[in-house]
Structure formats: structure tokens, C-alpha cells
Amino acid sequence: MPTAKNSTPAEPAGDHVIVGITAADLPFREGEEPWTAEEVNEVVEELTEEISKHRRAIEQSEAELQNLLRDSTEGAGRDPADVGSANFERDQEMSLAANARDMLQQSELALRMLERGTYGRCESCGEPIGKGRLQVYPRATMCLSCKQRQERR
Questions:
Q1: Could you tell me the residue ranges of all domains in the chain?
Q2: 75, 90, 95, 96, 134 from 68: Cα distances, Å
Q3: What are phi and psi of 73, to 5 degrees?
Q4: What is the CA radius of gyration of the chain?
Q5: 3-state secondary structure string, the chain?
Q6: Is this model's pTM higher than 0.85 or not?
Q7: Tell me: the pLDDT tens digits for 87-122?
């Protein structure tokens, strides 16, 4: 698994290499303890595992979609209820695949932000996102205040 240490570059993380990240480089909010190397390692591991999980989910959904599409072309004169069920299943698989792609992109973005040294800063206001928030949701790109403001719009 990838690691990030206080003074040495991390090892490869799947398709990514976390270079030169130190726990001291990551921002934290007032009242929080600074990041430790172990905490950074946990975030990198979680993101790497999520990337693998989402890639598998996408492959599985795409295979299921292929099966559904192949099955939908067979059997002229199918019962309308069967056609409706097949369409529902297809739409559901397409939704699952799209969600997995979104989550994959968010996880990959978080790793790229770690690589660039921009991880942990709100993309809206530039303030620290907060260590606690990132430990719960490592893909976060906005602090809680900015995210709430965005969702109210």
C-alpha cells in the first residue's frame, strides 16, 4: 500500500505516485491537531482502495449493461411488462455506472491534489477544509461552510 512519511516521498498508489507529501504540508483548521504521517497514510490508502472499488463497480455495471442490451434485442413480440422491467433494470445499471464514474473521478482528483500539494484547501475560499471532514470524506474539495452555501443555491 502507498505511504506518505514525514520526510520521504511516498510509494506508488496504483496509477498514481504521491511525491514529496509530508504530513506537515497538509492544512488543518484552528483547534485541530496537525496531520500525522499515519493519518495521511490512511487517507491515501482509503482513496486508493476506493479507486479500485469504483473501477470494479464500473466494469461490473458495464458488463451487466451489455447483457441487458443483448437480451433486449432477442425475442420479438415480448410482453410489455417484460420490456418495462428490462428498461428499468437498464436505467438502474446506467445510473450505478454513472455514480461509480463520478466517485472514481472524485477519488482520483483527491490523489492528484495530494500529489500537487493542494489537498485540504477549499476550492472555493482557500481556507483549510478541516482534517476531521477529510478523514470522514477524503474526496471533499470544499469546506463545510462553502459546501452548504453551494447546496442552498
A1: 12-117
A2: 13, 6, 14, 14, 38
A3: -90, -10
A4: 20
A5: CCCCCCCCCCCEECCEECCCCCHHHCCCCCCCCCCCHHHHHHHHHHHHHHHHHHHHHHHHHHHHHHHHHHHHCCCCCCCHHHHHHHHHHHHHHHHHHHHHHHHHHHHHHHHHHHHHCCCCECCCCCCECCHHHHHHCCCCCCCHHHHHHHHHC
A6: no
A7: 788 888 888 889 999 999 999 999 999 888 889 999
